[in-house]
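To illustrate the input format used throughout this study, we show a single complete record. The first block contains the structure-token representation of the backbone; no residue identities are included at this stage. The design step must infer an amino acid for every position from geometry alone.
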């Protein structure tokens, strides 16, 4: 089976009369290679000439002859400071809830300061690193 690709409509079977207007021919091997790359989290996008190409998470074009040896084409995830603060804030809130609030005890000032610092970083009003959480303590004041 022979395929064709259009920027507007993507892939379709090539009609017996040849490549449709506005489309480019795609071989069965290239079609298979593109979708093999997509299964490893690459994106299929139109190249400047209108032909389909596989690109990785950074936008670099992938040589589809190397697909079999690649692990993934996903963009590596590097958490931002805000992402880290959101995670730390959820954990710190759960901790203070279970250690203090659940028992009707006041949250110590060191924990309040830490929670507020995390909140400010998570919501973008502070873009600096956060100090470590206060030491776990069973002293409720």
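Output of the design step:
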């Amino acid at each position: 089976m022979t395929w064709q690709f259009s920027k507007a409509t993507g892939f379709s079977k090539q009609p017996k009369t040849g490549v449709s207007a506005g489309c480019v021919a795609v071989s069965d091997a290239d079609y298979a290679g593109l979708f093999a790359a997509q299964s490893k989290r690459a994106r299929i996008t139109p190249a400047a000439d209108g032909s389909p190409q596989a690109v990785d998470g950074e936008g670099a074009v992938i040589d589809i002859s190397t697909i079999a040896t690649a692990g993934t084409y996903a963009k590596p995830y590097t958490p931002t400071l805000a992402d880290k603060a959101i995670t730390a804030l959820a954990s710190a809130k759960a901790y203070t809830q279970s250690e203090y609030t659940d028992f009707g005890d006041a949250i110590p000032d060191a924990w309040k300061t830490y929670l507020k610092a995390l909140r400010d970083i998570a919501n973008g009003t502070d873009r600096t690193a956060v100090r470590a959480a206060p030491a776990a303590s069973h002293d409720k004041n």
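Structural context for interpreting the output: The radius of gyration is 26 Å. The CA atoms of residues 41 and 89 lie 31 Å apart.
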